[in-house]
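Z., the sequence and structure:
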Amino acid sequence: KKRQPVLRDVNLTLSEGSSVGLIGESGGGKSTLGRLILGLEQPDSGQVFLEGRPVQVWSKEHPGQMSVVFQDYTSSANPRFTVEELIREPLDILRLDASCAIPELLERVGLPEALRNRYPHELSGGQLQRVCIARAIATKPRFIVFDEAVSSLDVSVQAQVLELLLELKGDMTYLFIAHDLSVVKHISNRIGVMYLGSLVELAESYELNKNPLHPYTKTLLSAVPVPDPEVSRQRQRIVLEGDIPSPMHPPKGCRFHTRCPYATDKCKEAVPEFKEHAPGHWAACHLLG
């Protein structure tokens, strides 16, 4: 019954036509942030703006211009609907012509038109996720949230879906939420790293992978597998001790200090400021500078 803040001091800007990746462990607040941006949840404090307008106002002025692909594609697809009905639904709501759009959408996501009369339980996981993506892009949205859209797929299917998302890149602005840094870096212009409801680092994708500043980001990067055995043997893996603290009872000061190998007394008392340490490279850590 006690209310606890899930997100704290999160400040994020997305440029039109860009893709921003958001990574972090489960329970870090990534999906909550995505729901807030879409207007599915209301923040207790702070605001979300699209083109200078509150998100609730903007979405009413631009129906069908925001969309989402959820992590659990099985529960986000009505089992009573065929593939055609699933994709047609948002078009019918906006009174758009679906007769020509559905074959084109199926082709765009790499599905044969013969599947249009199948039901969700007759499709594989990869096929159903592609149907959800086709439904999400049916209204040609300007902004879309991919919430762990590939995390539950097989690696081969995951690669196919990522190729599809790369093709869509540039046609829309999107936020790609995941916990796999190796996936996010290939698809995002910028990457934000979240830990226990706070943004701890934000930078261009190449810069963050080449020069991570926050200890948590360095830990995540050290865990990414490298296909070259020689390089892999020379890398030093950073292993964190202990479990992630409960979001209901976050630690005082820097929320990462209970697992950080470099934590000082200051880290245990004061919350680090999220500031720019290099052009376009933001981080929140007392040890920087």
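The chain has a mean pLDDT of 86. The chain has eleven helices and ten strands.

Let me know what you think.
H.
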